[in-house]
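Figure 6 in text form: structure in, sequence out.
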């Protein structure tokens, strides 16, 4: 039964706490506790709800997917295999205009199949690709825009952390969501490369082709040692085996996403050891994943409690009824939802946006007749765009922090990322108009 006063209090209180800078997990927890108490009037029920939610979360093996996939990506990222592949791509497309930026997009696409974390891609390719592009006279903003923009693919191409979170929040098949992100991810990567090649042809100075190679700059920005053919082939074969084995096993039902994540982490560990990883690097990788994954799991626990609070107060049903009776068309309502995601992307991070909005927006979209899988991809793309949206733009700040170049401003990176943000908007519109882009592979294998 809908309680208007309680619903108003918990919604306003939640957003007020977030905007005041309270950590999202704490804001969700406080709001949930207050909401449950206002509905029931008994602290005993509040305590029981907290206990049952925490117990269910700890028993749910799905929560293990996130740290295990992150561990897989961390092991492969620290093995140096991505650097080997990036250099191979760079050498293989020498005749292509803007080849280093194109190689960055392709490399980030491959890296996305390994990590599923955009921040990891941004940090890695800022160190791998920027020195080489700088040495060859690329415009700084153009080079960093390509890195930041293509890093967004990490949240769309499996095994995406955002897809795992979406699947947990909406109780959808993570395997289906992984499949749904592949074609949209390839579409975005293709559009990114077309933009880079077109820019390189129209404005060759952006990619250093209007200048002679600058040896002084090349010495100032040391490029990674060129890998041998054997190292490159081993890196390609190793990553291809891990990706195809893990994702293929999930898609064909050989094992669950949790089992696949565990197998992937184990295979990645063996591969990294074969590539030369030592005990110190191994421990650093584990600690790095722990520091990143633990807050996400706490957030998911708080979000599960918040979802129960919304159900108890009837907020979700009330919002659905309001929009369904508003006279607005489904496209207009979808536009408002996407606008909210864009606006939230300016002030808070992607996972927090998802935790705050998906429990409300996903049932609304289903009631409007939108396909759940296509809407998931649309939502992830829209939330993902927030990673490039000022003033928060977490990817932009990650790139800035990783390059350690005081001559490049955050504003310059934001400006150079705008074309990639626009391409993401084109991707959203494409999936709205043609949901088969997201649904083709899931329908093929499920």
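Output sequence:
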């Amino acid at each position: 039964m809908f309680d208007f006063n309680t619903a108003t209090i918990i919604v306003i209180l939640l957003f007020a706490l977030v905007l005041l800078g309270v950590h999202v997990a704490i804001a969700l927890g406080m709001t949930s506790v207050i909401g449950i108490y206002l509905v029931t009037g008994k602290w005993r029920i509040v305590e029981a709800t907290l206990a049952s939610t925490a117990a269910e979360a700890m028993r749910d093996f799905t929560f293990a997917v996130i740290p295990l996939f992150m561990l897989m990506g961390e092991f492969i990222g620290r093995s140096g295999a991505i650097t080997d592949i990036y250099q191979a791509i760079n050498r293989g497309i020498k005749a292509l205009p803007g080849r280093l930026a194109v190689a960055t997009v392709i490399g980030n696409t491959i890296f996305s199949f390994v990590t599923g974390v955009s921040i990891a891609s941004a940090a890695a390719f800022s160190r791998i690709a920027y020195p080489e592009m700088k040495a060859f006279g690329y415009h700084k903003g153009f080079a960093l825009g390509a890195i930041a923009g293509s890093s967004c693919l990490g949240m769309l191409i499996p095994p995406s952390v955002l897809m795992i979170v979406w699947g947990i929040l909406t109780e959808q098949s993570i395997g289906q969501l992984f499949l749904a992100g592949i074609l949209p991810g390839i579409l975005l990567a293709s559009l990114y490369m077309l933009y880079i090649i077109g820019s390189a042809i129209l404005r060759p100075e952006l990619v250093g082709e209007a200048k002679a190679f600058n040896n002084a700059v090349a010495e100032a920005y040391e490029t990674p040692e060129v890998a041998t053919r054997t190292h490159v082939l081993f890196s390609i074969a190793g990553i291809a085996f891990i990706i195809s084995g893990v994702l293929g096993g999930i898609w064909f039902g050989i094992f669950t996403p949790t089992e696949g994540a565990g197998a992937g982490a184990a295979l990645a560990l063996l591969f990294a050891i074969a590539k030369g990883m030592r005990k110190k690097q191994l421990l650093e990788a584990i600690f790095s994943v722990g520091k990143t994954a633990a807050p996400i799991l706490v957030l998911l626990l708080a979000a599960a409690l918040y979802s129960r609070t919304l159900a108890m107060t009837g907020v979700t049903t009330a919002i659905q009824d309001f929009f369904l009776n508003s006279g607005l068309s489904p496209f207009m309502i979808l536009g408002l939802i996407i606008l909210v995601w864009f606006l939230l992307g300016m002030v808070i991070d992607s996972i927090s946006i998802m935790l705050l909005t998906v429990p409300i927006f996903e049932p609304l979209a289903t009631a409007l007749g939108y396909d759940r899988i296509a809407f998931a991809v649309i939502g992830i793309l829209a939330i993902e765009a927030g990673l490039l949206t000022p003033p928060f733009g977490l990817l932009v700040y990650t790139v800035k922090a990783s390059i350690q170049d005081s001559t490049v401003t955050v504003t310059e990176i934001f400006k150079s990322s705008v074309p990639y943000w626009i391409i993401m908007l084109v991707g959203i519109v494409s999936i709205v108009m043609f949901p088969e882009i997201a649904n083709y592979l899931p329908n093929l294998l499920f």
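Caption detail: The chain has a mean pLDDT of 84.
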